[in-house]
Hints:
Elements: H1 7-17, E1 32-36, E2 39-42, E3 47-50, H2 53-56, H3 65-77, H4 88-98, E4 107-111, H5 114-129, E5 134-137, H6 148-151, E6 166-169, H7 183-197, E7 204-208, E8 210-211, E9 217-218, H8 223-233, E10 237-241, E11 266-269, E12 280-284, H9 286-292, H10 305-320, H11 323-344, E13 348-354, E14 357-365, E15 370-371, H12 373-385, E16 388-389, E17 391-393, E18 399-402, H13 410-425
Parallel strand pairs: 3-16, 5-6, 5-7, 7-10, 10-11
Antiparallel strand pairs: 1-2, 2-3, 4-12, 8-9, 11-12, 13-14, 14-15, 14-18, 17-18
Amino acid sequence: PYTGPLADQVLEKRKRFLGPSLFYYYQKPLNIVEGKMQYLFDESGRRYLDAFAGIVTVSCGHCHPDVLDAIMEQSKLLQHATTIYLHHAIADFAEALASKMPGNLKVVYFVNSGTEANELAMLMARLYSGNLGMIALRNAYHGGSAGTIGLTALNTWKYSIPQGEIHHVVNPDPYHGIFGSDASRYAKDVQDHIDFGTSGKVAGFVAETIQGVGGAVELAPGYLKQVYDIVRKAGGVCIADEVQTGFGRTGSHYWGFETQGVIPDIVTMAKGIGNGLPLGAVVTTPEIANVMAQKIQFNTFGGNPVCSAGGHAVLRVLDKEKRQAHSADVGSHLLGRLRALQERHDIIGDVRGRGLMVGIELVTDRKEKTPAKAETALLFEKLRELGVLVGKGGLNGNVFRIKPPMCFTKDDADFLVDALDYAMSKL
Length: 427
Ligand code: PMP
């Protein structure tokens, strides 16, 4: 049994020694001390079904034995010697990752987080195009650094600092968007921004392929195809942020952008790529990579042997355990059950997503789509009491985000839906 510090002590120390911007979930925050596949355990040994996966980060499962073995074997031999020397792990991992990419996306840069990946992608876009303006979607989250905070368009995370030339276009959100599911009208807004708000030239366009923090928002079908054409005509490159959607989570495809039938010029990844290791990557074409060669692009830990060995093991596990097909199968079961639940509970305004990337939007009025903020908060606490951990998101914090480790089963999905049903019936 766990004998370490208890929640109150940890919280007190966090308050004293960590910044006040660090936030936590739940009125009585959880002290999680152990994880095993799709389960988390608190200080008292109580088990929780984890439907949030450390914010969509744990792909294979908490402490997956194969990933752990790879990390430990490499750690015993060599943890770090910098990429100035050769090591096979980074080269092998890059080869394996490139083999998962379509088209000419064959050059890999390793970094340590999603923010760093998007920061690097933005740099590439600006250098390659020779332009400065970036286009991003409203309701997007791309990171919290000085550069990526500009791409992010959810004000919870936006500090007021100079953010460069960034244009936030109308979000092609089929549920809330002013043009419904009409991709052409949203794409026209991108063209308008270019025509009226720029010199006519842009550096690039970036979008998550299903918005994560924004509340599991799928882009109107056909949107990316039209926008990629528009952006390329204006001299820009197209970046897909796969930090949450990559590695088979959407079920139907390995990458989220494939659900829109496009091939980006740059793809950014993090989170699920490392199953919990601090790891991110940018994959691009040799042409774009070439402009980076005018200087040295260096990242001390990017692709270090331990993260490379772990990340490579993640790719192998996802293939061996057929997690993409599993996500499709369990995801459609989950979505089906949630849609049935929606018929019985008026508070469920929208059920959306793909595979194991699911959102449930709660409203007090289905027609007005009024955010059920207080009810969401109550249900969130109730689910925790029942042993189920989900995420919250959306502009008004009224969307449950269900994005579990990809080993999540149909029984787990049933447990989650039954718990939600019970909690809603008690509202
Ligand atoms: N892009 C997306 C889509 C994300 O969800 C996040 C993190 N929530 C990031 C980028 C930034 O990743 P990190 O926190 O690893 O810097």
